[in-house]
Amino acid sequence: MRLIPGSTIPQETKGTDKLTLVDFSADWCAPCKMLHPVLDKLTTELNDRVNFMTVDIDRDPATANQFGIRGVPTMIIFHGGKEVDRMVGFRDKASLKRDLEALAVGTLG
Amino acid sequence: MSFKIEIGAVNSGAGSSENSYQLVIAGGGPAALSAAIYAARYGIKHLVVESWQPGGQAALTAEIENYPGFSSVAGSDLTNAMKQQATAAGAVFVMETVESAEEKNGKILIKTDLGQYTSDYLIIATGAAPATLGVPGEEKYYGRGVSFCATCDAPFFKGKKAIVVGGGDSAVKEALHLTHVVSELGLVHRRDKLRAEPYLAKKLVEHEKVTTWWNSHLVEVTGDDQGVTGVILDTPEGRKHIETNGVFLYVGTVPATEPFKSLVDLDGKKAVVTRNIVGTSNPRVFAAGDVTNNGFRQVVTAVSEGARASAAIFELLENEE
After folding, report:
1. Same-domain pairing of B67 and B201
2. Looking at this predicted complex, what is its ipTM?
């Protein structure tokens, strides 16, 4: 999963036909660390429908503030540069995959 | 294909096929990790199915001050150390979600999102998830000021106002953690005294940043596009609107027993009803930690119950031979 600067979220999320999941995360956050292997696995499994990237809120506090992040991990899912869903807290792989697949069907057709 | 993280040596107990075990341990918190340490050391052919969430609730606790041997230890450090110990002992883990468990041909059949396993015995150590209040605004502002984890989210409230709802150990510990960062902290409790350890309760109530709202209930979380702006409380003096940026909820837990409800007796709060501490209504199923109705939900009791459960199963397996 790629670490990106928050300033690149607009071009990262607009320049693709796929969904983009941006994980807002922090080094000190235990559930964030638990979530990373889940997202790494889904990066491979959902490669054809979802791009995965992460923003470190300590490096990018302005971006976190801009997106109204007040808890980590927060995952925002974008399509065409627009937020289509938001999930807060640790998610296990099965339920996250199920929700992303459903979102992909609903959004990408 | 099953996604297996096999950490440590594969143990060499009895069992005829790859997915057949003497013991499956469901869970990833202190109770499960302790059970795994003992199972591995006893040489029981076992599998730990851990999902939500590695380290359990304990991993989300900022500081644990009542676990013997440590004056103060971060919950995540303690559970990481337990996992490392279990791994070194030969415990085998998979990251999967248990979806159902049933009895079949004298064995326990455990189905996960990625596969299925049969086992002679099962330890349910799946813990509990935070309970919600179900009040307006709670779900809408979850992640935008409403939180169930001060350890995770406290930095967002540096120099801001927050309230904590609850009166047990978790509420008080996490409230004390918040006092390090917030400008003001309100404590809302439905009774006129805290249930938490008196030492911690006194430290919190006497803290200069803390205002207490006794015999009070949170009835609504209010906010705007940016997130939480306040709460409405029912207090003995009537309904009050309090300005706050953060709302931290510690109003109990819901045991994670859904996949096991046909296998063992549950009480009215969905906790596994235990017999002799770790036994259940099903002789092939044991339970340990916050998932049980044992009442005293502490790391120290969870690890004790996990150890007892594995020891009891070891004895049963020995007698079957």
Report:
1. no
2. 0.76
Place of tokens 């150390």: B81
Examine the residue annotation and report whether B149 is marked as an active-site residue of this protein: yes
Q: Does residue B125 contact residue B210 with C-beta atoms inside 8 Å?
A: no
Output the tens digit of pLDDT for each of chain B's 321 residues: 333 322 233 333 333 456 999 999 999 999 999 999 999 999 999 999 987 566 788 887 878 888 999 999 988 889 999 999 999 999 999 988 899 999 999 999 999 988 899 999 999 999 998 999 999 999 999 989 999 988 888 989 999 999 999 999 989 999 999 999 999 999 999 999 999 999 999 999 999 999 999 999 999 999 998 899 999 999 999 999 999 999 999 999 999 999 999 999 999 999 999 999 999 999 999 999 999 999 888 999 999 999 999 999 999 999 987
| Residue B164 bridge partners (DSSP) | B187, B248
Where among B202, B226, B249 does a domain terminate?
B249
> Which one of the listed residues B113, B152, B224, B267 is annotated catalytic?
B152
List residues of A with catalytic annotation: 29, 32
Q: Is B143 on the interface with A (CB under 8 A)?
A: yes
Contact B122, B284 (CB under 8 A): yes
Closest residue, chain B, to A73 (C-alpha): B152
Instruction: Check if the beta carbon of residue B54 is closer than 8 Å to that of residue A32.
Output: no
Q: Are B292 and B305 in contact (CB under 8 A)?
A: yes
> Using the beta-carbon criterion (under 8 Å), do B155 and A95 form an inter-chain contact?
no
B75 occurs within a structural domain: yes
Does residue B3 form part of some domain?
A: no
Half-sphere exposure of residue B15: CA atoms within 13 angstroms, side-chain side: 24
CATH tag, A2-104: 3.40.30.10
Same domain, B162 and B76: no
Chain B interface, mutation test: which of A40, A65, A70, A91, most B Cβ atoms within 10 Å? A70
Measure A11 CA to nearest chain B CA, in Å: 24
Does B141 reside within a domain? no
Q: For A25, which residue in chain B has the nearest alpha carbon?
A: B152
Statement to judge: residues B32 and B165 lie in one domain = no
Is B152 assigned a catalytic role? yes
The yes-or-no answer on residue B169 being catalytic is: no
Question: Residue B305 half-sphere exposure, CB side, CA atoms within 13 Å?
Answer: 34
In a domain, B83, yes or no: yes
In the A/B pair of chains, how many CB contacts fall below 8 A? Answer: 76
Catalytic position from the list B77, B153, B234, B265:
B153
